[in-house]
Design a protein that fits this description.
Elements (H helix, E strand, L loop, with lengths): L12 H13 L5 H20 L3 H50 L17 H5 L3 H6 L2 H4 L42 E4 L10 E5 L2 E3 L2 E2 L3 E6 L4 E3 L7 E6 L4 E5 H10 L4 E6 L1
Antiparallel strand pairs: 1-2, 1-9, 2-7, 3-4, 3-6, 5-9, 7-8
């Protein structure tokens, strides 16, 4: 019996045919099997290619860091502007309260009227800022208007009622002292001087030092600025004419000169 040899390496033809036939019986040589092998190999290559190399990972990290460096300051500025707008609205209501009170007191603010006539002239010069707002409680309606929404000092607390009667609930906070206020009052402000500072954020510095409660005297050349708290080196001033100005530290210095007064006295809470 002659056994034929194949051209590829001398494999017996009969044995090769037997192997092919055996494979065919298992479906290994069918087109669908060959396609599945090709697809499986492709999936393996794709899985191996899906992972990031170390260099690619570093590039992604660097891109994320750069985006954070660009976006986070912008978000902080946006929040700062939003808080200043809220504070501006509050100060606008306060300047309106001053002017409404003046209509019933010969066009004079509480600081210009003696205690015996319903004002706070003697109290304000002693630094009792809260008393000035207390006499205007009818015009203000709520002491919540006397606390900046962005105040972070834990020694300050927003009052919820002007009433001196016992609290209705344990959550009520009576308006009782300067810790319920975050705005200064211009002691010498009057309606005849429209550029006078009537009310404003009290987070001021002079010569780089934050001011303390009491009576503060500012000259036109006093190096006054805002602290970084509340509005990020910006702040708000309510003018005697009822307008409210959002100012940077540089603009604050300009507005101090524009008051036209050699000395500006501010009652700081």
């Amino acid at each position: 019996m002659r056994i034929g040899l194949s051209a590829e390496g001398g494999e017996p033809v009969a044995k090769r045919r037997q192997t092919v036939a055996h494979g065919a019986s298992r479906g290994l040589s069918s087109p669908s099997f060959q396609a599945s092998r090709t697809f499986g190999a492709g999936r393996g290559r794709k899985r191996r290619q899906a992972g990031l190399t170390f260099i690619e990972f570093l590039v992604v990290v660097v891109v994320l860091v750069v985006l954070a460096a660009i976006l986070l300051p912008q978000m902080a500025r946006t929040r700062g502007r939003a808080s200043r707008i809220g504070c501006t609205n509050i100060l606008k209501q306060n300047t309106l309260a001053f002017r409404m009170w003046a209509l019933d007191h010969n066009d004079k603010f509480p600081m210009q009227v003696s205690i015996t006539n319903g004002g706070v002239m003697e109290w304000i010069e002693a630094g009792n800022v809260w008393m000035s707002f207390l006499v205007m409680s009818n015009e203000l309606n709520t002491p919540k208007l006397l606390m900046c929404p962005t105040e972070t000092n834990t020694n300050r607390r927003m009052a919820t009622t002007f009433s001196k009667t016992p609290a209705i609930s344990k959550n009520d906070v009576p308006f009782s002292n300067n810790t319920n206020v975050t705005y200064f009052i211009g002691v010498d402000a009057n309606e005849t001087n429209s550029t006078a500072w009537l009310i404003g954020d009290d987070n001021l510095t002079v010569n780089g030092r934050q001011v303390v409660p009491g009576l503060l005297q500012l000259w036109t050349n006093s190096p006054v600025a805002w602290t970084a708290q509340r509005h990020v080196n910006n702040g708000n001033i309510g003018m005697a004419d009822g307008s409210v100005q959002g100012l940077s530290s540089a603009k604050l210095q300009e507005y101090l000169i524009q008051t036209g007064a050699a000395t500006n006295r501010l009652a700081m809470p």
